[in-house]
Amino acid sequence: MGEAIVITSGKGGVGKTTTTANIGTALALMEKKVCLIDTDIGLRNLDVVMGLENRIIYDIVDVIQKRCKLKQALIKDKRFDCLYLLPAAQTSDKSDLTPEGMEAIVAELKQEYDYILIDCPAGIEQGYKNAVAGADKAIVVTTPEKSSVRDADRIIGLLEKEENVEPPHLIVNRIRNHMVKNGDMLDVDEIVQILSVELLGIVADDDEVIKASNHGEPVAFHPNTKASLAYRNIARRILGETVPLLSLEEEKGMFAKMKKFLGMRS
Amino acid sequence: MAGSKQLITIKGTRDGLTLYIDDSCSFNEMLTELEVTLSTNHVAEDEPMITVTIQLGNRYLHENQEEQLRELIRSKNKLVVQSIESNVIPKKQALEWLEDSEVKVINKVVRSGQVIEVQGDVLLIGDVNPGGKIMASGNIFVMGNLRGVAHAGVPNNREAVIAAAYMKPTQLRIADYISRSPDYETEGVYMECGIIDHEKEKIIIDRLQILARKRPDINGFERRMIHG
User: Any idea where the Septum formation inhibitor MinC C-terminal domain is (chain B) (predicted)?
Assistant: First the structure.
């Protein structure tokens, strides 16, 4: 029996889709059976980031409206045999999806996959409600900006009301070291203190992420970049490794050291 | 019936007259008796006004009954009703009293978009985040970070206070007063409180210690209730 994790943020453009693609890729690298679901009906992106756009035949709305079987709509990833994508529809809108329909799909997928990652649309309306239905866990993505943290706070408040969802975990995305150092950006401790949820990981702002996304290849697939390492660490923490907290400390320790190093020089 | 037992006892004190009214007779009996008793006591024209306190014992009067009683006494020369006191209040009012005098403990983080509203005082064990709001008819005590909006003394208790372990609110509101955070970035303050300064006519933030001097009534909720 698998686990369904919804990835959400409230605010748009903080990296939900990128995070979904990369955590999915990282989990697949660890040989877990993973299925990604894009619930952003009308504005689908996950297929583009995964580089699977050209393979779409059926989508999630076709499944809900019974035009095809669930298995027919699933797209196998081009790099991994254990990674699948259920794409969103581009032509319909969010009202074509219902929380009940989502629950049914997630329940069916849980039989077969270890992890189901649900990419949530921005906002707190119908699209969010659909995405959260059927999820067991939640990951909230935020960037170190006030507006983004504010929306994350709002969404955490809503998630706390969902009875079936465990208390959410936090990913702080797109951290720019030099800005944090100058005090121009919120630092991670501050964000965690405000949101008072458990921190799952931090991802540095890295040009490689954008580059990789544009090539339809999640950055987690390439080793040797900071962001890739961060996503892999997050995946390990999701798997419940005992290292995770340590590796988080390590990561932070490395940042701290770098900050110190740069601070001494400048 | 009439005359078998005296229904109304009048006692004179330094502050005026006190009417003790027997609480076992009917309201109409009481009015008739009062009419007779007060009519027999003639007061000279040049005497000053006499204030009257009415002790109802275990009798409860509806609003219109109370008005009737006041009307009757007012119609007599030189008598002014100062207060009508009774040992009993209706259940509903008692529950309201209880609610108003209780400190409600809430253990959660008030997040953006959430509003907590309570009757009486509130003790929040947790934070109020920016965009969140906590409202109380009494005082607000936050054992955590107050970063959002706090509104104490809703709707018109200007004596209410807001205290927080860490204070960096977007807005403080007490009764009908509002103060907001400055437009420049500030550090918050620890263990401080917001109260209305009656001389400056605005909300001020100061150390918690000033409360002992400026709002001694926080000590006893019962006392505050009796004072109204």
Answer: 105-205
